[in-house]
């Protein structure tokens, strides 16, 4: 794989990670606003989902 | 468009609605186990009052129809005493906004404890809704010297009674059948109890007094249950020691010591295996990909970050195994009773102790489990201090720093100094939690301490299947988290550490150290360095700390990414070695001394770096503005404590002349 | 109250003279010896605690066995084990069961 391709994949990966984390944070804000009764967030680590 | 060719979806009103079934019963009647046996959905089960705090739902198919089952929190009567029971009653009566009452109620009754269980059962039968009684643990009757005439019981109560053994899944088919049939039959009415009470002069229509209810139940018991006097219970003989004034607390501390020792030494071989796997993966990637940006991203970023967190998987599994063992064996309720004496002067309840211990695993479910505490102020105080209990997310941080800076020597021929240091961190957090509770209960949350009335379930051998399940749930979640969030954070952090690319005067890439310092991450680190400088930290620790405000374990993955060590083989030890060898570029002295490590660990003992906990506190302290204030207070007081502790340790250590590098 | 204590100290077995309707034999659960079989006659604690105790099988007329009194009180209530702190145990009035 040439350096050009590597750079492209890296740029995509970084963008993907940023979008993933941003979307997650956004969803959590929305969920917190809507849902009062749910046990916990999607990654609280408690296993009760 | 030809309308007749495609099957049209039914409008929602006429769609076949699944039959809704609610499981109710006393705490410890085996309700959660029955729920698992019935639905096959895996769920956390415990053996002490009040752990199934949350509403759990599952489904099964019977005769081609879907039946949805909700497992309600355990309760003793329809007059709720705790927020937890109030939820159960609300669901049962259909008082929860937007939810109809269940179609069929399944009362789970512990056969061994039938008389007490019938108290709740008669209350529910009087609701006049389709009901089935699942008589659980009938296999233990012979041992307890009891016999129950089920047919007679059905006649007395006027409701179908199905004997089951939830732990072995016996009687499930008959129970499913009875549930489906109950939905179509007229609901039972318990007129007999009213008639009997009326004969005793109770006004018609009024709620029955407890003694009238029990008198009627005593009659039913006489006609349906035969008892042989049974020998002294083994459980009591064990309790004589476990609940002992002196031995009780000693046993408790001993158990905790074994738990921490196990977490540190048993996990070692497994962690080594995971490290080897991570190293092998890194080597494989390096063999396939030529040096370049992508290889660096995968090896230094993703594997460095995820790999350094992954090695803590065995420890987390062992922690949850122990907590599950304590719960399922019935010891947890005893611990609450034993500890009540010590909690009382602090203004807490023996029951506060269960959330506190759960806090060792994760503050989020621990805060949820405070719903069993009836008294609002005691509950609030417990919520406020639970996150001080060292949770499993702190474990990676402690482990990394302990492995790097505490010598692996044995003390007293038995315990390793590293294990003892870990125990020390946990004790520090525990003492701080208790102290903070005492302060809260004497200031913001002042009130009288309430009574302790707690049922001690009989000891039982924990089921391997249930235990294995609960551990697997945690492991799976941790893996999912490592594979998604931590992976994404690691990739992003790698990007922040790798860009913008610094160029030397000749336009050639600069050494990695300088590159890191000039990267976006480096600049952020330098910007916050003044804030962490008084604690003895450099900007690299500062960056990791900032990143870990989302979740504590990110500290380790950030350090792992910063030092890009995944390709150096054995990742945790390599990171630990790097930390030991790291020099401050200006002074040339060791960047991390044991003193700094101690201060850093203390910081992590106290600081509330977990967005999930903040969210949970907000929700459980009332939500809205009120909850936001409590959550903000919790976050702030813990951060102040953390900074103060780290400052005191570092500065105090310097004054004592402990500062000069390792 | 001093009389009650004396009575208690002397009574080691539940086989005391049946004084089911005489008030002086009522005493707090907290002062009963281990192995004592008691009949609950009343409560002197807040209503919500009484409700909880009743739901757990400790109601007026219930028969309870004292299993242990060394830290708080451990009761046998129809086969189930109930742990109470000393304050609650002091607020439950009992008399010896026949």
Topology:
The complex is a heterotrimer of chains A (49), B (662) and C (98).
Chain A: H1 3-34
Chain B: E1 19-25, H1 31-39, E2 56-62, E3 65-71, H2 83-92, E4 104-110, H3 114-125, E5 131-136, E6 146-148, H4 150-157, E7 160-163, H5 172-182, H6 191-199, H7 210-224, E8 225-227, H8 234-242, H9 247-265, H10 267-288, H11 293-310, H12 313-328, H13 331-343, H14 353-358, H15 363-368, H16 376-385, H17 395-405, E9 410-411, E10 415-416, H18 417-442, E11 453-456, H19 464-498, H20 512-518, H21 520-532, H22 539-547, H23 554-563, H24 571-581, H25 594-606, H26 611-620, H27 624-655
Parallel strand pairs in B: 1-3, 1-4, 4-5, 5-7
Antiparallel strand pairs in B: 2-3, 6-8, 9-10
Helix pairs in contact in B: 3-7, 4-7, 9-12, 9-18, 10-11, 10-12, 11-19, 11-23, 12-19, 16-18, 17-18, 17-24, 17-25, 18-25, 19-23, 20-21, 21-22, 22-23, 25-27, 26-27
Chain C: H1 2-10, E1 27-28, E2 37-43, H2 47-55, E3 63-68, E4 73-77, E5 80-84, H3 86-91, E6 92-96
Antiparallel strand pairs in C: 1-6, 2-3, 2-6, 3-4, 4-5
Q: What does this 3D model show about the protein?
A:
The complex is a heterotrimer of chains A (49), B (662) and C (98). Chain A is an all-alpha fold and 49 residues long. Helix content of chain A is 65%, strand content 0%. Chain A is rod-shaped, with a radius of gyration of 17 Å. Residues 35-49 of chain A have low confidence and may be disordered. Helices cover 56% and strands 8% of the residues of chain B. Chain B is elongated and about 100 Å long. Chain B contains 27 helices and eleven strands. Chain B is of the alpha/beta class. Chain B has helices spanning 31-39, 83-92, 114-125, 150-157, 172-182, 191-199, 210-224, 234-242, 247-265, 267-288, 293-310, 313-328, 331-343, 353-358, 363-368, 376-385, 395-405, 417-442, 464-498, 512-518, 520-532, 539-547, 554-563, 571-581, 594-606, 611-620, 624-655, and strands at 19-25, 56-62, 65-71, 104-110, 131-136, 146-148, 160-163, 225-227, 410-411, 415-416, 453-456. In chain B, α11 packs antiparallel against α19 (464-498) and α17 packs antiparallel against α25. Chain B has a six-stranded mixed beta sheet with strand order 2-3-1-4-5-7, sandwiched between helices. In chain B, strands 6-8 form a two-stranded antiparallel sheet. Chain C has a single domain (2-96), classed as Ferrous iron transport protein A (FeoA) (SH3 type barrels). The longest helix of chain C is centred in the N-terminal third of the chain and has 9 residues, at 2-10. The model of chain C is unreliable at 1-22 (pLDDT under 50).
